[in-house]
């Protein structure tokens, strides 16, 4: 199956965005894909802030993008745009780092006023990097993502269904197996 790079652009160590991505990673793994998680916040700040293209961590991150067949990009929305941390990484990648790749954009935020951030802020940047295909993305409200004290993630039913659908579309675009759901009723 495909190799997928799952990129969290959140600067927070307790990020709902990153936890949601890791939850979706499990679904993609169950569909037969190899998933490599990348938390941009784990990259050295000096490499990102000072645009050190040759820093070993940036070289390694670039190699992960090259290796992947598909890329999941997740970001919290701040002031109607994707995170500055994600922008820092995208700026350091080669112009066509997404050439030939299938991309799934995801965003989280506190208000539905930011629901179009994927289409108006993130998608144009991703498109400029030459992907073969950008699948429909999804915006999830923070209040629809709950993290229990033990770290267990719960997504509100409507959001969970929508996320499953866009994740499955992305997986199928990469040649993944459809997820088999148990029949109800």
Automatic annotation (TrEMBL):
Record InterPro entries: Flavoprotein-like_sf (IPR029039), FMN_Rdtase-like_dom (IPR005025), NAD(P)H-dep_FMN_reductase (IPR051814), NADPH-dep_FMN_reduc_SsuE (IPR020048)
Documented EC number(s): 1.5.1.38
Alphabetized UniProt keyword annotations: Flavoprotein, FMN, Oxidoreductase
Every NADPH-dependent FMN reductase-like domain range: 3-143
Oxidoreductase found in the keyword field: yes
Record-linked Gene3D superfamilies: 3.40.50.360
Origin superkingdom: Bacteria
Pfam families: FMN_red
Name by which UniProt lists this protein: NADPH-dependent FMN reductase
Protein's organism: Streptomyces machairae
Taxonomic lineage of the native organism: Bacteria, Bacillati, Actinomycetota, Actinomycetes, Kitasatosporales
Name of the gene this protein is made from: ssuE
